[in-house]
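Fill-in record for Lipid II isoglutaminyl synthase (glutamine-hydrolyzing) subunit MurT.
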Amino acid sequence: MSKISIKSIISILATKFTIFLTKTILKGGTTFPGKVALKLDKNILSKVASGYNVILVTGTNGKTTTTSMIYNILKEKGFSVITNNTGANLYSGIVTTFVDNYKFSDKNHEKFAVIEVDEANVKFITEKITPNIITVTNLFRDQLDRYGEVYTTLTKILEGVHSVPTSKLILNGDESLLGKLDIKNPVVFYGFKTNINENKTIDINADAKFCKFCKTPYKYNFVTYNHLGDYYCTGCGYKRPEISYGVDEIIDLTSESSTVKINNTEIFLSQSGVYNIYNALCAYSIAKELGVDDITIKKSLESQSSSFGRQETINIEDKEVKIILVKNPAGYNQALDTLCLSKDPFSAAFILNDNYADGRDVSWIWDVNFEHLNNVDLNEIYVSGLRSYDMAVRLKTAGLDSSKFSITEEYDSLTERIKESNNKKVYILATYTAMINYRKHLHSKGYIKNLW
């Protein structure tokens, strides 16, 4: 064990005790213990993270799922690895993760930490530790009252990247904001090498429509979703970088799963949607950079289960209920596109909150293509959350039959209506705090075994 000060020892012991209390009494709580640790030792992160090969996962959408995929691949390979699997991705939550896993008598073996980090918190983490790898999944408009536009989010991430020029960046090459960055870091790109459909035009509400160098509208060889795809600029010649790890073929794409070829390796993904193909591709890329073989990656990704509100499936009486976290137009549209692949009738609940973690401004729901739901057999519509009436107005404006609406802010009432549904399959699309709170409700009723 490396030398550690008395102050740090006190900080670690106090934090471990706090973690014990929060887990046993509060049944959760991953942020407060880290605040205790930092109060006692502001440099505690650099000490408890010492010896880890750190992989930071950031970006707007897909952080939690991608982090879980990377973690599971490394575990499958037999590595010693930790992660903040509940999505506690702020500075104090990350400190909690490292302190919780800290051992005073740790042996000097190779170990990994796969850490999800909020975009605005990257700079705080890289002030204390130098990650081996930093990956950025994508950049979309999200929580406008906190982040502003996508360029602001990129600036926040790069503030952290500039502090660690030796960290390797593994970036989404289909994200036009991530090409030709003014950085010293080694960079590897992943992306799609095949189109999903014949679409070459991005939606009017897409997030980055203009060249970041000359402001000319981008052209596309193909679009995957939102502004992601094989882009190029006719004004200055800026184009998508060379892709090292790519999706070669989409073999099958349904509302429940997909089968793809990544660098000629066929992989089945139980999580549906193009965005989850991107998540798997990112995890594959990082695993390959760490020297993991294709067989191990394939085995792990094919056994990856959904959890914690990311397409998590829960049985409520005889109903198959799938919870999907939605927090911005890009992710919401992907969720709706996935629902539209369903060939069977289903019910859907739309839960909208406007707490700080959701973003106070809910005007973004008007950039979501709810109109697409007119093309599916959606015969029961439940609306809930703190802003349930805003959501109901949006759905009615989209052309959905308001006579099918059932509006309630009470989770007990929502659950009862789900039980009484005429359909076996129910999708719940919920913003962050709505997802957290409804999962707590289901946990209290015995429908979810593990809350965190």
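KEY FINDING: The radius of gyration is 22 Å.
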